[in-house]
Amino acid sequence: MDILIDLLKILHFIGLAFVLGGAVIQGRPKPPREQRALNKGILHGSYLMLISGVLLVGIFETYAGSPELDHMKIGVKTLVLLAIWAIAFFNRRRVPVAGWVLGSIAGLTVLNIVLAVVW
């Protein structure tokens, strides 16, 4: 069971890297002819984070040796992740990507990291 938990944590971190890395890479200035729609890694990374996070919570809830979970923290982190997903989903085809989209995705991702570490 510990191997599965570690694997899900790794997948969760990979999804996090896709979201934050995709927002940072796409945020670089480009000439107008090279502007593209939103990086697909952002949306797919948010899916990966959501699925692996839900599976981790499910395993921790059913696994006898797991620590007590903070459901308020999990709920707030899920809401932040759903906000990231919604912004990415509804702006995935717009060209050029609005300036606030990448900044808000990166900021919300950093907020999710801060909530995980500090709370």
Compose a concise summary of this entry.
The chain is mainly α. It has one domain (about 1-119).
Can you walk me through this structure?
The structure is a single chain. The protein is mainly alpha-helical and 119 residues long. The protein has one domain. The two termini are 26 Å apart.
How are the SSEs ordered, and which strands pair?
Layout: H1 2-26, H2 40-62, H3 71-90, H4 99-118
Notable characteristics:
119 residues, mainly alpha, 74% helix
Largest sheet: none
- One letter per element, helices H and strands E, the order comes to HHHH
Q: Give the low-pLDDT segments.
A: none
Radius of gyration, taken over Cα atoms and rounded to an integer in Å:
16 Å
**Proportion of strand residues:** under 5%
Mass-distribution shape: elongated
Helices, by number, come to 4
Q: Which structural category fits the helices and strands?
A: mainly alpha
Integer count of domains:
1
- Tell me, rounded to a whole number, the average pLDDT: 91
Oligomerization status of the protein chains: single chain
Number of strands: 0
